[in-house]
Every structure is written in C-alpha cells, then in structure tokens.
Amino acid sequence: MLLPMVNDTSNLSVFQSLSPYTCLPPLAREPQPLTAHRSHPDSADLLSALSQEEQDLIGPVVALGYPLHRAIVALQKTGRQSLSQFLNYLSACDRLLRQGYEEGLVEEAMEMFQFSESQAGEFLRLWEQFSDMGFQQDRIKEVLLVHGNRREQALEELVACAQ
Hints:
The protein is mainly α. Among the domains are: 49-99; 102-162. The chain has nine helices and no strands. It has helices spanning 12-17, 41-48, 52-63, 68-78, 83-98, 103-112, 117-132, 137-146, 151-162. α4 (68-78) packs across α5 and α6 (103-112) packs across α7.
C-alpha cells in the first residue's frame, strides 16, 4: 500500500491516508514538502538515490516531521512491502531516541532484535548500565545477544571476562 503524493500546498491528504492508530512524532516545526529537503547537499544525494515509488512513500512521512535520513534508513531496513512496518519502525525509533539513546545504537538494536521495540529497549537499557560500569561496548553487545538480554547472566560473564 502506497501513500499518495504530498500536495505542496496542503498536507491534508497525508493525514487522511494514515491510520488513526499510527504513532507520529510531535511536530517540532511547520511540516515541509519533500522538495524542501533538496537544499541540503546530503539530502539531495539521498533523494536522488531513491526510486519514485520510494520518494512517494517517504514524502508524506517527512512532511509529518520525521527527519529525511531516518525515514530513508527505516525504508532500507524494513523494505517497501509494508507501510505499517515502516511507520512502526520509525515510531519505535522515535520513542527510544526520546529516552536519550544514540541514534546509531537505536538503529542497530532495532535491527538486532528484528524491529522489536521492547527487546531493543531492554538491550539499550542494559547496554547503558554496563557501559556506565566500564565494560567494553563491543563485549557488552556480544554478551547481551548471547544471553538474550538476561541481565544477571550477561553481568556474570562480563565480570568473569574482566578478571
């Protein structure tokens, strides 16, 4: 299912085409059409690499306030086959980012746990705790994956390896 093209003068069609249950970020500023992002060199490069179908899908989402780069990453990770999966991924990432986690780590956690917000959130919470304890970040990631986010087992292994 594809969203209709965004009309540069009205975003009404965007809101009508989304499910009322779709979780969207709060608008930080006035919504902008996709073409407004062409003024940024990196954005223009990203947009030119997209097919028209992908631009048609991303346009309404960007107009609603999601950053272009995040929308493109979400599209790449979730694919074009499911609009709901694409929007759910963006919404989950947005909620995790609002908790203060770094964007790259959020994207990695979402991918590691096949877009499960609860599992990615638990991973990020534990990763932050163990990082604050001084353990190596790559080792934390490995141990949490091996132990399925089980805190006690992961911590035991981290402590044993540190000695």
